[in-house]
Amino acid sequence: MSEIRGNKVTFNPNKLVLTAGATSANETLMFCLANPGDAFLLPTPYYPGFDRDLKWRTGAEIVPIQCTSSNGFRITQSALEESYKLAKTRNLRVKGVLVTNPSNPLGTALTRNELELLVSFVAEKGIHLISDEIYSGTVFNSPKFVSVMEVLIENNYMYTEVWDRVHIVYSLSKDLGLPGFRIGAIYTNDEVIVSAATKMSSFGLISSQTQYLLSAMLADKKFTKKYISENQKRLKKRHAMLVKGLESTGISCLESNAGLFCWVDMRHLLKTNTFEAEIELWKKIVYEVKLNISPGSSCHCTEPGWFRACFANMSEDTLNLAIQRIKIFVDSSDVIGTNIDQSNQTNQNTSTSLKKKLFAKWGFRLSFNDRER
Ligand SMILES: Cc1ncc(COP(=O)(O)O)c(C=O)c1O
Fold first, then answer.
1. C-alpha–C-alpha distance, residues 262 and 256, integer Å
2. I want to staple 87 with a disulfide (CB 3.0 to 4.6 A). Which of 80, 92, 215, 344 is the partner?
3. Where do the Aminotransferase class I/classII large domain residues begin and end (predicted)?
């Protein structure tokens, strides 16, 4: 953790609680910090899994901090205040703000200014700040990753009340590409939370065999350093490939410097400026172009027409093929308004249509998770 943060912050192992991935870390923090009906404020768009991880079993609520494309989806003071007000009008007690740095789905790292704004906001309101830094090792372009811990130290928050109210979530699922190993962590300066989270971690332990294997692997400093820098180099190359490829089809992406995905602007391909049109376009891309991307509405984006496209989980050849398919799709005369069922009618038999319906349901559930709750 220190190495990824340029050794600007040191982490005390006594303040670290191991969990079965970031999923478990985020839920555990909710159990520790919020009572049912209490709220956390989250900048939109956000990782769809948060609806499940933060709300389902804890009874906590999420109130959006509305971020928009007008400033590259950056967090502003007014958006924070609006969100806080909205929670109050819904009679919710605000317990904190949760950010993902770098962001899933935007692929952007928070700026120092945004972090300072967040820290002073939680200081003023007397609430918590959770920073999910699961993508911290994926920053492949400048500006460099800045951890909230660094900002706390630089702004003299050490050993103040705020120091105890800022918590980091981490996991090896993304930086080391090990989601199946289920290795996550909470890092907090608050001893009471360390103690409560340690007790709760019994419900999501990392097996001792996994810990043993990992500690041997991570102890090889030369390997981990090389792995992270090589990974960043490859992500940078793959990101550039996708951005350039999409640009050649007239599609642009939000400028980003981290993560495993791009935030793609397809607003001009919508039939109307609505979420219904977004879903219509998404279905075409899934069923006709046969590419699995996520619609922005699944991430609670407030503007229809944005999509998240992953570029890291495939070979270069596959990515080239995906870009090729998008190109053909965009170039085709009838991108907008094609009825999927009609266009496939000719050689469609009953069994493929049934398969499609089931796939549609499954895809929708997978992408939207707990959208309605
Ligand atoms: C922001 C964020 N937090 C948490 C998780 C869950 O990670 P894990 O596999 O470590 O549970 C993800 C996974 O995509 C994520 O994007």
1. 7
2. 92
3. 5-326
Residue 1 has pLDDT above 90, yes or no: no
Q: What is the pLDDT of residues 195-226, one digit of tens each?
A: 999 999 999 999 999 999 999 999 999 999 99
Same domain, 59 and 195: yes
- The Cα 2–Cα 92 span in angstroms is 36
Does 26 reside within a domain?
Answer: yes
Domain count, the chain: 2
CATH number of 89's domain? 3.40.640.10
Q: How many whole angstroms from 30 Cα to the centroid of ligand 1?
A: 15
203 and 86 within one domain: yes
- In this structure, is residue 361 part of a structural domain? no
- The active-site residue out of 38, 51, 53, 132 is 132
The pTM score is 0.90
pLDDT of the residue at 342: 39
- When mean pLDDT is compared across 124-138, 216-230, 272-286, the lowest value belongs to 216-230
For ligand 1, the distance from its centroid to the CA atom of residue 268, given in whole angstroms, is: 30
Instruction: Give the range of the structural domain holding residue 159, as residue numbers without chain letter.
Output: 2-220
Residue 63, CA distances (Å) to 9, 44, 98, 283, 372 in order: 31, 10, 10, 28, 13
**Does 349 fall in a domain?**
no
Q: For ligand 1, atom 7, which residue shows the shortest CA distance?
A: 22
Q: Which of 75, 134, 323, 326 is catalytic?
A: 134
Sign of CA dihedral 315, 317, 322, 327: positive
Answer yes or no: 144 catalytic. Answer: no
Same domain? 101 vs 47? yes
Atom of ligand 1 nearest to the CA of 21: 10
190 an active-site residue? no
Q: Which of 55, 95, 174, 284 is catalytic?
A: 174
What is the CA angle 334-339-344, rounded to 5? Answer: 95
